[in-house]
Prior knowledge:
By secondary structure, this protein is of the alpha/beta class. It contains twelve helices and four strands. It has a single domain, classed as Rossmann fold (3-Layer(aba) Sandwich). Helix content is about 55%, strand content about 5%. α1 (about 5-20) packs across α2, α2 (about 35-45) crosses α7 (about 165-175) and α4 crosses α5 (about 110-130).
Amino acid sequence: MRDYKCETENRVKFIKELVSTAQVSGIVFGNSGGKDAALVGILCKLACDNTLGVSMPCHVSRNYESDIDDAVLFSRQYNIAHKTIDLTSTRNEITHAINSVVPLKNIDKPNIAIAPRLRMITLYTIASNENCLVAGTGNRSERYTGYFTKWGDGAFDFNPIADLTATEVLEFLRYLDAPKSIVEKPPSAGLIEDQTDEAEMGITYAALDNYLLTGNASMHDAEIINRMHEASHHKRKPPVIYQSV
Length: 245
């Protein structure tokens, strides 16, 4: 297990230096009510008092229920400013506008692509207006498997937890005494009704993280992990551009 006292100090120092170098007034992050967002929010608040968490419910019922409840609970515990911006009507307008020109095979499926990108548009608009940096909330496990949306939650100015597996994020939150409801809730992207990350991926985070940290996994789990990693290389690379000779 990592030395989370040392990890906290080093990451807070990293964030403070970024804020100072960028000459910004604060930090904004997407407060989903999940584990990764909670850890990022705590670290950013420790480094910069002017830290704002923004909850952006969009279409899915849990966004308006447990997600918001946990986002507010954790914000109050750590004295982090919190705002809520409802994106459902915007999501619906965009979906139907596209569908009227390019018929969509599944009218609900676009939420997977549209919601994360609407959220990032929202965060960057606020950041530009308030002279802030946008903090990313993705962990190492998600990045390795490509379990994030390109130009959505995969976009940010900096990410203070990108090297931590999902298991390490959980350990870190326990060290920081995060709310039990957040620590124990099943990980979910919150983009589809009744969805959980592990059910969708077909593998547990414990197995995935053990593979990342030790290289050990069952043949079944290794196949899933390697397939997801290979299929998502484009998400981890900068855009391809033509270069003249």
